[in-house]
Design brief:
0% strand, mainly alpha
Length: 103
């Protein structure tokens, strides 16, 4: 697979669509305000965020940047409910793993 910004954008779009499908007619903001925990939604949100971060890179080496971001995401502090934070992190790490070059 040739890794291009379009490849990453397509993966990000798929994550956004999975997130929206999971939430149905509910918004993530409404769920958060209700105090309801929804780790499955946080997983897809994490994928979307990680791939967005990858797209904002200034390097042309997306595979190397995805590997670098894996290290960042593995140790980044994620505030909030521990279960949701771990789901968010897992989503981000899974998304980046698809594109990370082995070093």
């Amino acid at each position: 697979m040739t890794l291009t910004p379009d490849t990453v954008r397509a993966a990000r779009r798929a994550a956004v669509e999975a997130h929206a499908q999971l939430l149905g007619n509910d918004s993530a903001c409404a769920l958060a305000k209700s105090g309801q925990s929804y780790p499955a939604a946080k997983f897809w949100e994490g994928q979307t965020a990680a791939l967005g971060e990858l797209l904002r890179t200034t390097t042309n080496h997306l595979g190397a940047e995805a590997a670098r971001l894996q290290d960042v995401w593995a140790t980044r502090r994620i505030p909030g409910n521990e279960r949701e934070a771990e789901a968010y992190r897992a989503g981000g790490l899974e998304a980046l793993a698809r594109f990370a070059e082995s070093t």
